Write the structure tokens for this entry.
Amino acid sequence: MEGVQQRLQAVRDRIETAAQAVGRDPAQITLIAVSKTFPVDAIRAAAAAGQRDFGESYVQEADAKIDATSDLSLIWHHIGPIQSNKTRSIAERCHWVHAVDRAKIAERLSMQRPAGLAPLQICLQVNVSGETTKSGVDPADVLALAAAVTDLPHLRLRGLMAIPAPTDDVAAQRRQFGVLRACLERLNAVGHGLDTLSMGMSDDLESAIAEGATMVRVGRAIFGTRDRPRAERVARE
Ligand SMILES: *Cc1c(COP(=O)(O)O)cnc(C)c1O
């Protein structure tokens, strides 16, 4: 697991360089280590190197890892698609949810969030690529969804999240991240005090930081190549 700590440092260096290149303070950017499909040992190695925020996509897998690391007081982010019959565990055990794209899911999360816990921190997922198959709310519908989420008592709307269409073209990466940033600015212009842009992964975090990312979600660059068959098996849980 030594490789994890070295790669984690390399990702921190990339974040710092990308932030400085556009005159931003690297401390404004939270690194979420996306540990989905990777073992608990890898999470422990990253935590030992100071990593606190972890992202998971599959509820059953996240539950097992949260149990196995309960001695570490880590911050858990649910970043994957959300099925309405899987909201309870997310509401009870996670700190952040990044892929809320419909009011029904937000209502369930709020209803199921235990009253004794701090509000669940929420990002709305926006479809910035225009692909009809991508999940995420259409940019034209973000205002209405934000208004609905803001009214829910046990949620706190923090910002927006996107997964752009993958491309090596930096201009195309920046254009898509720019759509998300513009959505956040529109929401704040009508009175939402949102402070979070969750965007950027292993291959495009520099473009995301240039467009204002405050949270980057990085898996492979920290933990190594993902074992795809396993990921797909877990996805069908
Ligand atoms: C898997 C995943 C990531 C991390 O992707 P990498 O390419 O491994 O960095 C980020 N965000 C979401 C929503 C993911 O599902």
